[in-house]
Amino acid sequence: MANEAATQVREEVEEIKVTTVWKDFLSVIKIGIVNSNLITAFTGLWLAFYFTGEGFLENLQTVFFTLFGSALVIAGACSLNNFIDRDIDHLMERTKTRPTVKGTMEPKRVLWLGVLLTSVGTLSLLMTTLAAAVIGLIGVATYVFLYTMWSKRNNTLNTVIGSFSGAVPPLIGWTAVDPHFHVVPFVLFLLMFLWQPPHFLALAMKRCEEYRAAGIPMLPVVHGFAMTKRQIVIWVACLLPLPFYLFSLGIPFLIIATLLNVGWLTLGLYGFKMKDDLKWAKWMFVYSLNYLTILFVAMVICAID
User: Fold this and answer.
1) d(CA 184, CA 51)
2) Is the pTM higher than 0.85?
3) Cα–Cα distance between 82 and 87 in angstroms, integer?
4) How far apart are the C-alpha atoms of 254 and 260, rounded to whole Å?
5) Which long-range contacts (CB under 8 A, 24 or more apart) does 133-136 make?
6) Where do the H-state alpha helices sit in the chain?
7) Cβ neighbour number for residue 290 with a 10 Å cutoff
8) In the predicted model, what is the mean pLDDT of residues 154-180?
């Protein structure tokens, strides 16, 4: 009986270790970011099939390599971000439990994990088109070098610069099917690019003191909430005309997209009357998450023949 109990304890300990390692891995690759970006990559892929007349089921190989490659490239970039930011992550509440801060994953392992994931992801994208692989690498380079290593620590334009990499996934999805220029992927890129500043600036308002403690010059830290609120509203207003460039998706999509844009702009303008800036920032952040999901799911549904 004693041996049986000891064996059971060892098995439970091993199970806990495996669970911890898996959780650390998901934390390092920022699985939430990977999942949300896969939605936009899939939308780009789906719309490319729709507008080029290609069949989805007849191109499942392209679908697999595109989504698999996109996921790995994004995960690789996030891992590299974790490696670089390990010196400031302990200063922020939302990042102080990362494996690179707790010491449960060695920095070198995180670095090589990022390199490996990026490399395998790029090879996977090469199985579709060269354009998709190149765009994926541009996204990684922008996120790692221009955002994480440079602008994030030096100027308030860091949010805008980081938006370039966040707008890449739908371009990867589209070019994996059609590497030639088309207005649709360009509009998808603009949608993602314009969506990110109000989304992340709202988050920066919520976490303002954490960013201040970490020495990160986010807009609300340097110029205050009033300036940040004006910037957010301007970015949201810029989204208003974009759905009309996707009129081919039909009237239902235009109605849904316009209502989402008007609703977000209305909430943004209401912020100038609210006294509780942090509560307004929370509302804007939550709205932005739902906005992105609903908008891109609507594109996919409206493009179903």
Assistant:
1) 9
2) yes
3) 10
4) 10
5) 133/69, 135/168, 135/171, 135/172, 135/175, 136/69, 136/70, 136/73, 136/168, 136/172
6) 2-28, 31-52, 60-84, 99-102, 107-126, 130-141, 152-154, 158-166, 169-175, 183-206, 208-214, 219-237, 251-270, 277-302
7) 12
8) 96
